[in-house]
């Protein structure tokens, strides 16, 4: 089998099964694991998969920059944001992570709601600027332009001084074994701090993130309380997440 044919086969298995196990594939093709691992390295370098121990997973498409993500799964993000907004109760202190779904959540908070929103996302803060009942606490730091959020030591220090009711977290990948992941090491650290600062965490994930993985692990999926998805999220991909202890909540899609 030619290299090109092997790589196409690997990608076909990945689409079919949602993962590739190097040992199983080497036995199937009667090739050495070294050959398969080399193919996986090259495919990963092309951005076509995410290598993990023992094989590979689908790469998180959500690693596009903020402007690019505005065009990705737009209807799903509106539905998830609307559903997330309904979870906020009067008087609560909530942490809202950055990202395009978080902006939709801020946009859909009820007009009469009185609560406190703490965020390291200028985009979320601007969205709430005209909401008279929301006290907005904007965390500062170094602006990470890819996601339009504050990161770094100043942001970490500010987050460590908060006790919030709920953290609404954005990720680029949700996988039962690979965990909650994102594409930047500093952003992963900030997301861990946000989770630690809240009594519970609701992960906001459009369907392209389910079963996918990025390079940097935030936490195991079991560290979150709830995964909020749209009706389009495939049941088969959600089953292992539920088995791993993550409660699944679907938005109404309307």
UniProtKB/TrEMBL annotation:
PROSITE patterns registered for this protein in UniProt: HTH_DEOR_1, HTH_DEOR_2
Cross-referenced InterPro entries: Carb_Metab_HTH_regulators, DeoR-like_C, DeoR_HTH, NagB/RpiA_transferase-like, Tscrpt_reg_HTH_DeoR_CS, WH-like_DNA-bd_sf, WH_DNA-bd_sf
GO MF annotations, alphabetized: DNA binding; DNA-binding transcription factor activity
Keyword entries, A-Z: DNA-binding, Repressor, Transcription, Transcription regulation
Sequence ranges assigned to domain HTH deoR-type in this UniProt record: 3-58
Name assigned to this protein: DeoR/GlpR transcriptional regulator
Organism of origin: Variovorax beijingensis
